[in-house]
Write a structure and sequence with these properties.
Strand content: 25-35%
Number of helices: 3
Structural class: alpha+beta
Shape: elongated
Largest sheet: 5 strands, mixed
Distance between the termini: 20 Å
Radius of gyration: 16 Å
Number of strands: 5
């Protein structure tokens, strides 16, 4: 039997505006979204922490929450995304960027980012992952 991989997911929301220059639809004009960001992570080895205060965990939800808030949410909430980033602020580009930022911060902790799911509306999302 293949060993189980345990993943945890933490969800966040942030409000931001953006526009897509030269887009041939409504998104060319400034508009806003209440984004929902879901971050799923696993241990690099697929197992749980074996000992210590975090034994039996992938990573403490509190620590994942602090990291995502500091590295992403606090930088984008209530902003105009075009003023924050130099790349075209599509949901796809944002999700890829968030994935890369988190992978860089979590990797040294022995944690890999499994997926980043970014909801632009209640019915539309992009998912970036290693699977």
């Amino acid at each position: 039997m293949k060993p189980l991989t345990v993943k945890i997911t933490k969800a966040f929301t942030f409000d931001a505006a953006h526009f897509l220059p030269e887009h041939d639809g409504k998104c060319a004009a400034m508009h806003g979204h209440t984004y929902r960001l879901e971050v799923s992570v696993a241990r690099a080895d697929g197992r749980l922490i074996a000992e210590g205060p975090s034994a039996g965990m992938v990573i403490d939800f509190f620590h994942l929450n602090q990291l995502v808030k500091a590295e992403i949410i606090d930088k984008v909430d209530h902003t105009i995304l075009n003023d924050v980033f130099t790349f075209r602020t599509t949901s796809e580009n944002l999700a890829c960027h968030f994935y890369q930022v988190l992978a860089q911060k979590l990797g040294p902790l022995g944690v890999r980012v499994a997926t980043v799911k970014l909801w632009e509306t209640p019915t539309s999302y992009v998912e970036v992952g290693d699977e």
